[in-house]
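TICKET: design request
STATUS: open
ATTACHED STRUCTURE:
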């Protein structure tokens, strides 16, 4: 399978402050890398109020929002853009949605509904908006991932 023949998509993760404080960022990133996803953008950012209000607009009126905003701005995060076939759904499933979902990042390393280590985009439309929110176009890299010929088969195209 030639990497350029694949139809891939991009998604966004945030490795949250609790993951960095707990020394788990490498292990978290490794889970996505080991599944064959390509890192096309990666940066450390200290999130401030404006970007958090935009990113968490869907929960801004919830009672936990202030605590969430404090947590997410308490120390830096890693914003990472990942690419692969069906990447949005795949990355969301590797991340998990609750601390009870063993075998996922949240299930294996977290116990909190808030301090849950990793954000991942929940649909292709959200992913496109979130990638634009966290990355300038020149911060995203188009390159050939040689490993992909060992990751995908022709019948997967
Ligand atoms: P998601 O991260 O699984 O997509 P969302 O519902 O989009 O979950 O919520 C965004 C973030 O808000 C969660 O990742 C978590 O950190 C926090 N959060 C969600 N629900 C609660 C809650 O009930 N209490 C406290 N924090 C919450
Ligand atoms: Mg969400």
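STATUS: resolved
RESOLUTION: sequence designed for all positions
ATTACHED SEQUENCE:
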């Amino acid at each position: 399978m030639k990497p350029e023949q694949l139809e891939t998509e991009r998604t966004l993760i945030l490795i949250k402050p609790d993951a960095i404080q707990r020394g788990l960022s490498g292990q978290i990133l490794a889970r996505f890398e080991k599944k064959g996803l390509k890192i096309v953008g990666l940066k450390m950012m200290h999130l401030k109020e404006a970007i958090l209000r935009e990113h968490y607009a869907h929960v801004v009126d919830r009672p936990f929002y202030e605590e969430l905003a404090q947590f997410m701005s308490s120390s830096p995060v890693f914003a990472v853009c990942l690419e692969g076939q069906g990447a949005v759904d795949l990355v969301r499933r590797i991340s998990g949605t609750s601390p009870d979902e063993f075998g996922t990042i949240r299930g294996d390393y977290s116990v909190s509904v808030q301090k849950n280590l990793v954000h991942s985009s929940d649909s292709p439309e959200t992913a496109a908006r979130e990638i634009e929110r966290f990355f300038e176009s020149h911060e995203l890299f188009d390159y050939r991932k040689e490993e992909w010929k060992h990751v995908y088969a022709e019948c997967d195209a």
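CLOSING REMARK: Residues 122 surround magnesium ion (ligand 2) (CB under 6 Å). The mean pLDDT is 96.
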